[in-house]
Amino acid sequence: MQTSSPPRSLSPAALEVRAVLNDWDPIGVHLIGRGWPDDEYDDLILPILRALDTRPSVEDLAAELREVVEVDYGLPAPQGCHDVARSLLALPR
């Protein structure tokens, strides 16, 4: 999975993914304080939706989430990759 350009408009499924990502906050921007936009992680929405179409395992999706934060964002692996993967896989499709 690699980051991509954010979608121009968000479908209901994309909004659900956005909510999960903002709750997870893998790079910790919401811990800094108020004022961060809701679209901070929108570059992950399309890759996640494409990944979900392949029906990955929790392990595989968690590994992809970990990799995108480490490689694309250049940050250490965040906590909660498995929990987020489970939440994303449980979203209605």
Largest sheet: none
In terms of DSSP E residues, the strand content is under 5%
| Termini separation | 19 Å
Give the fraction of residues assigned to helices: 40-55%
The dominant shape is globular
Oligomer: single chain
Low-confidence runs: none
- Summed up, the helix count is 5
Question: Can you give the mean pLDDT?
Answer: 88
Radius of gyration: 12 Å
Structure notes:
- This protein is mainly alpha-helical and 93 residues long.
- It has helices at 12-24, 29-32, 45-53, 58-72, 81-89.
- Helix 4 (58-72) crosses helix 5.
- It is globular and about 35 Å long.
Set out the fold topology.
Blueprint: H1 12-24, H2 29-32, H3 45-53, H4 58-72, H5 81-89
Helix pairs in contact: 1-3, 4-5
Concise synopsis of the structure shown:
With 93 residues, the protein is mainly alpha-helical.
